[in-house]
Specification:
Iron chelate uptake ABC transporter family permease subunit, transmembrane, mainly alpha, 14 helices, about 350 residues, about 75% helix, ABC_BtuC-like, ABC_transptr_permease_BtuC, ABC transporter involved in vitamin B12 uptake, BtuC, globular
Length: about 350
């Protein structure tokens, strides 16, 4: 008699909760790196101590605290604090989305942007300039623009996940492949529209192709902060289940976890986080990959209770510390996103070459 095929329907665990939790912890420990096994919490605290130091230095750099004038209180400090809040919210959101995406795909060289979020954002921006012109696109209400851009990106991703994973019963690899194809189509459509543009319109549009952490609307930063905070709280609350989910489909199902349902929930959360961050500042293709691997290499454990806070702390250190060095120490006016994307792209190539050798 042939055995029944393995399905995603959960089965009753054969052991109590505590034994399978110890199995998960033992598996995560075996996959960690020798001397880095001890005290991952201290390394997480170290990342956030560096983040606090970078944030303090960024806000207070060049200010004479003994003689703060009206200009400092009304212009300099509010601008710096808004930029700091934007970098913190976007950094934490992108880092969280990348770690969760790695959890469900079991592939650490992918980023959520591979699903076409950046391409959809560019298409929306291009279409807005084409339909409304430069003046019309600049006079749009930022709250309304943020809301419908984030909603469109989230709904597109969730519909894609549900259609392929549930409706057609395809694997996650097929979902990623379809996302790459859709992203390529959207980029091609954006390029076609850009070729028909007036050169002046294209120059204005080109500034939106890169993430900009300066001048974000404080209301939008607050909305995104609420989304990121709720997502982070859910992730920490579900950290044990995410550890099981990361072990793979067969092990997760055998331990009583509804793998397909958990996969869809995580992917929907990733879509919401990436859509909100992209609608707020613009595309950040490889930034999440960079900070996620900084966390993987320094924490020395695969448990989400430690990896997620470490990745978020590394994201804040990278953005705020990078902006501090670029703007204050070196006196440069260039875009930090270009430098971060360059480092993230190099990280991607290194990981790709390392996997090819294995």
């Amino acid at each position: 008699m042939s055995a029944e095929p393995l399905t995603d329907k959960p089965i009753a665990p054969v052991e109590p909760v505590e034994p399978w939790r110890r199995q998960v912890e033992a598996a995560a420990t075996r996959r960690s790196c020798g001397g880095w096994r001890r005290a991952p919490g201290l390394r997480v605290a170290g990342w956030w101590a560096l983040a606090a130091a970078a944030a303090t230095a960024y806000v207070l750099w060049g200010l004479d605290l003994r003689a703060i004038d009206q200009t400092t209180l009304e212009f300099i400090l509010p601008r710096r604090l808004t930029t700091l809040a934007t970098m913190t919210v976007v950094g934490v959101g992108v880092a969280l989305a990348t770690v969760l995406f790695h959890t469900v795909t079991a592939n650490r060289i992918l980023t959520p942007s591979i699903m076409g979020f950046d391409a959809l954002y560019l298409l929306v921006q291009t279409g807005t300039v084409v339909l409304l012109g430069v003046t019309g696109s600049l006079t749009l209400d930022p709250v309304s623009s943020f809301a419908w851009q984030a909603t469109a990106m989230t709904l597109l991703a969730v519909a894609l996940y549900r259609w392929l994973l549930v409706g057609l019963g395809r694997s996650l690899h097929m979902v990623v492949l379809v996302g790459v194809v859709i992203g390529g189509f959207l980029r091609a459509l954006s390029t076609l529209m850009q070729r028909a543009m007036d050169p002046t319109e294209f120059i204005v549009l080109q500034d939106r192709f890169f993430a900009d952490f300066h001048g974000a609307d404080l209301r939008l930063v607050g909305v995104t902060a609420v989304i990121v905070a709720l997502a982070a709280a859910w992730t920490i609350w579900r950290a044990g289940r995410l550890d099981v989910l990361a072990l793979g489909r067969d092990i997760a199902v055998s331990l009583g976890l509804d793998h397909r349902r958990g996969q869809l929930a995580v992917l929907a959360l990733v879509a919401l986080l990436v859509a909100a961050a992209t609608a707020l500042v613009g595309p950040t293709s490889f930034f999440g990959l960079l900070v996620a691997h900084l966390a993987y290499q320094t924490v020395g454990t695969h448990r989400h209770a430690h990896v997620v806070p470490a990745a978020c702390g590394a994201a804040v250190v990278t953005l705020v510390g990078g902006q501090l060095v670029l703007e204050k120490a070196l006196g440069l006016e260039g875009s930090l996103s270009l430098v971060v994307e360059l480092l993230g792209g190099v990280t991607f190539l290194v990981l790709l070459l390392r996997r090819a050798r294995a």
